Amino acid sequence: MRELLETYDAWRAEGHQVGRAVVIRTYGSAPRQAGSVLIVADDGRMVGSVSGGCVEGAAAEAVAEARTTGHASVIRFGISDDQAWSVGLACGGTIEVLVQPDVPDAVVAAARAQSTGAMPGIGTTVVTELPNTGTFDGASGAATPAAEGAIKSEPERRPLDELRSATLAAGRSTTADLGDRAVFIEAFPIRPRLVIVGATEIARSLVGLAGALGYERVVIDARSAFATRERFPDVEQLLTDWPDEAFEAIGLGPNDAVAVLSHDPKFDEPAIAEAFRRGARYVGAIGSRKTQADRRRRLVEMGVTEAQLAELHGPIGLDLGGREPAETALAILAEIVASRRGGSAAAAG
Length: 349
Description:
- The chain has about 350 residues and is α/β, with parallel strands linked by helices.
- The protein is built from eleven helices and 14 strands.
- The strands form three sheets. Strands 3-2-1-5-4-7 form a six-stranded antiparallel sheet. Strands 12-11-10-13-14 form a five-stranded parallel sheet, with helices on both faces. Strands 6-9-8 form a three-stranded antiparallel sheet, sandwiched between helices.
- Helix 6 crosses helix 11.
């Protein structure tokens, strides 16, 4: 939903009503994951996607109907292999879509926020209670967004809170059963942050790739000749401090991935040690295998534990065989994404 806010705001400023369809469950080889959103204006314009193109038209019609009735619904769509192929997809699947006559205020607020809500510093969730879904071919039932305060009893609150935390940790929306009820837990985690130590040529390529994936980017280098806005015009933060001072200034923590690229022990090793001390979820450092072996011995002397060393990604990045700065940056970001998403980094198949 976040990526659609600019369009949503523009349509609302023009005086249009805006409804939405959001994927709440997927089965098989569905083209879009839970949480994927299509918004539809009352003049028929739509943006976003729930299926990659297969059923967008039907979903938009359902939003228009919901606007007429004032009621939300859940619709299940089976996407055949033939349908999927016709719009350039490799295979079909089944999706369940929550259709709403408007975009709930709580969803808009959560999409705008970066670290607000029940779990500051992690993100927030919006919980919608769902009905029993209908049959295939668009049969539907009523669905009413549930105010979080309506789910009150302690036996219910405890598992729901656990589910919300797990949903945010995974960074993906999900549907879950709570007794005889189903709820859609829509996740709005804060943006992942990539902290780069060393304003090198690899760093310049890396910030561009990371920006395309929605990362907030911080570049740190005490050498002011390297850390300039001319070289890094669009990063969110550019700091000319020593790594430990910069980490303190930005509040480095578990939401952060740290890529140490300066290739200078006086910067690299304190940065690695401090990143582990602050609990960064990914720590990687550039350097050959020999450099890494020598570095690890010195890190132990600095108090880094064997368990932490086992988590150090060094040499940094997946082995893609590339040597150019952009190729190395791609290898680094691929490893960071695999670490964040729990991927094996093996060939897909």
